[in-house]
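Comment thread on ticket #2218

A.B. wrote:
> Attaching the input chain for the structure job we discussed in standup.
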Amino acid sequence: VKTVDKTVEGPQGPVQGAIIASELHQNGLREAKTFAPGYGEFFSAQGGDVEALALAVPTDELPGPVPAELETLAKAAPGTGAEMRRAWRSYQDKAPPRFKPVMASALERLPEASFEVAETALDLQLRYRSPVEIDRARFDLWARRLIDDAAARNATGVTGDLVILEWTRDRIAHTHDPVARTRINTHLVALRGKVNDEDLAGAAAEATLLRATLAGARE
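C.D. wrote:
> Ran it. Output below, let me know if you need it in another format.
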């Protein structure tokens, strides 16, 4: 421990009582790490790598409902990519040639950007909702992303999306009743088969069914 009783800037203002420790890595290098009350490991940086805590619950919980703005950001952002690509495919023959590569490039970047907006909005909602609720919302978000990646014919993205769905399922399985849990697991097994067969259309269809099951489990 190098420093004690340090004040650091937290998500809601100054946090007193932090300490700075020196960690010895296996490669022989040392790294300064800041630990703060209510947060644990708060900040560390070495070379170009930075690990900084942005939010912790229950430390940073706020009273009241989720702000409408965060609800809008979380719900409206995903899924726009597929809809916009369909619109562009329908219209592109009418567009001047020099506009085509510009729009194609913008649409290629859109799914990742829209997903990050929704994911960040859910992170911010942690201040108002329980971690379990957010994990369930993230599960649905990744299913939506899989559908979007399948529409973009991004097989690598679909594979990664499914892995994260499987991991997240393990975090939320205990929150569902046995019937819903079995249905969700069945969808994921079917999804794994579609992905292994490189059947992107089938994977998107199965992810759509998974989302319907999730919606029913929430009712």
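A.B. wrote:
> Thanks. Noting for the ticket: The radius of gyration is 21 Å.
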